[in-house]
Amino acid sequence: MSEQIRIQPIATTTLQLLLQVAQHVQNQHEHAYLVGGSLRNLLLQEPCSDWDIAASGDAPKLARQLANKLDGFYAHLHDKANRVVVKQTQPEIIFDIAPLDGTTIEEDLNRRDFTINALAVPLTNFVEHLTNGSPLALIDTTSGLNDLHTRSLRAVNEQVLQQDPLRMLRAIRFMMQYHLTIEQTTEDLIKRDAHLLLKAAPERIHEEMYAILRPQGATQRLRYMDRLRLLTTLIPEFTPARGMRQPGLHQWDVLEHSLEAVAALERFADVMRQHSEQVATNEMGDLAPLRTLLDEAERQGIFTRADLTSPVMKLAALLHDIGKPVTHAIDNEGNIHFYHHPQAGVPLAQTIMQRMSASVHDRRLVQQVVANHMRPGQLSSGTLTQRAIRRYFVDLGPVGINVALVSLADHLAMRGLQPLTEHWTNHLTTVVALLHTYIRERQRIMPPRLLQADELISRLKLTPGPIIGQLLEAIAEAQAEGSIHSKEDALWLAHEKLQQDAVQEPSS
Questions:
Q1: Which positions ≥6 away from 414 have C-beta within 8 Å?
Q2: Distance CA 69, CA 63 (A)
């Protein structure tokens, strides 16, 4: 197309493989083109992790032949993709061979999603360009090259989002990944078609949402999704949260607070990654003791700092108050309440995570954060007892560390731009005490059991049932408090509790 277009050099091994692919396709009297994401990345001077090739003829057959020729592995992904993986190279090289969508490459390009992906180069010309500097014969039917130069994301036509609604989330990811601006007409198309988003496969929604959430700045992208009507399409449970006022120290409504909690989690994690002397001097107070504890927890293998800003943790922060809209109440004095909103939020969060095809692990983590995010703050309002600490970690285990850190992000998001108060200091002190006890004194508060259930049943001639769990928990608490030390002590305590319960039962 133009002699001015140049592709940055690629590894010699990759070039030799591309040459073999081009020659093989020619020998089969077919046509092959480098297309889509591969060409887009190369033109943007971005790394190319795999090679997208559109070919005429029988693409699956062609891919199988190439796998044999290149001593690679063949995988049929779906009707529009056949993968060849060459593992002899480091890193491995992937070729995705797709049939032309239409009878010509021009028809194929005009059926793609965005103009920056609707570009192609004949594979033989691409190899010649890299080997001897021949002009690149770019096929550009939608002015995609100009959009690349201006960093604009533009839909190929007005129907592309309706044909595959997932493309609306892909637009957000492309915008983030390649620092693009979604042009106005495409924004309008997304707003028009946002209601179709849930027609996409949940597994694909999951993949795109996690990619959108993973890098820093997730709140900005979530707000943009909200502006384009995608957020409340994906999470309609947030619809009544917009404009829903909150009491007390809260600066934001429920929706804004939920979005701000994600930003606060990122900000808090960023401060915790800094050097100790920097951590000790910031607007959040003295965080150095907390950072030291998290370092120890990481060495123990019960906490991973990188996981604090993982996509699932950001979702947990986003959804921590999802129970508020359904528990919103105003009393006779005009005071706003959200009684039992953590418990009410658990099934809602589960539904949302299932809607996004989240794993069992991720659904469980979000459920634990939603159900327990208030506990550290509530514990800070009174005397923190060893029994309360133990019960917190009996319920949550090492996940209690993440729940406590989300509770701090929740507090920061509550205040917004307003200065932190003594409530923050108390909250932070409580979290440090919680983590200190669990990380450094775990054996003391959660010692090995003196009795197992079967032995308790046998020795006291009990019938299996809920009482067994209650007795074991009472024994564990007494053991943690240091009031019993042996199996016989445990049996005595269990016997005493049974006697007390029998006395307290009302007579018939």
A1: 249, 250, 251, 252, 257
A2: 10
Alpha-carbon distances, residue 340 vs 318, 324, 368, 374, 480 (angstroms): 18, 9, 15, 10, 30
Which run of H or E residues covers position 21? helix 12-27
What type of residue sits at position 103? T
Is residue 136 within 8 Å of residue 129, measured between CB atoms?
A: yes
Q: What pTM did the predictor assign?
A: 0.87
Assess contact for 434 and 400: CB atoms under 8 A. Answer: yes
pLDDT in tens, the chain (508 residues): 444 677 767 888 889 999 999 999 999 989 999 999 999 999 998 888 789 999 998 999 999 999 999 999 999 877 778 999 998 777 889 999 999 999 999 999 999 999 999 999 999 999 999 888 888 999 999 999 999 999 999 999 999 999 999 999 999 999 999 999 999 999 999 999 999 999 999 999 999 999 999 999 999 999 999 999 999 999 999 999 999 999 877 889 999 999 999 999 999 999 988 765 555 456 788 899 999 999 999 999 999 999 999 999 999 999 999 999 999 999 999 899 999 999 999 999 999 999 999 999 999 999 999 999 999 999 999 899 998 999 899 889 999 999 999 999 999 999 877 888 899 999 999 999 999 999 999 988 887 887 888 888 888 888 888 898 888 888 888 877 777 778 788 888 888 888 887 766 655 4
Which is nearest to 63 in space by CA: 80, 88, 87, 41?
Answer: 80
The C-alpha atoms of residue 58 and residue 99 are separated, in whole angstroms, by 7
User: What would the DSSP string read from start to end of 170-230?
Assistant: HHHHHHHHHT-EE-HHHHHHHHHHGGGGGGS-HHHHHHHHHHHHSSS-HHHHHHHHHHTT-
- Beta-bridge mates of residue 75: 83
Amino acid at 188: D
Strand extents, DSSP E, 320-464: 329-330, 336-337
CA 474, CA 461: separation in Å to the nearest integer? 18
Q: How far apart are CA 200 and CA 183, in angstroms?
A: 23
Largest Cα–Cα distance of the chain, in whole Å?
Answer: 99
Burial state string for 196-233 with b = 16 or more CB within 10 A and e = fewer than 16: bbeebeeeebbbbbbbbbeeeebbebbbbbbebbbbbb
Stretch (H or E) spanning 53: strand 51-55
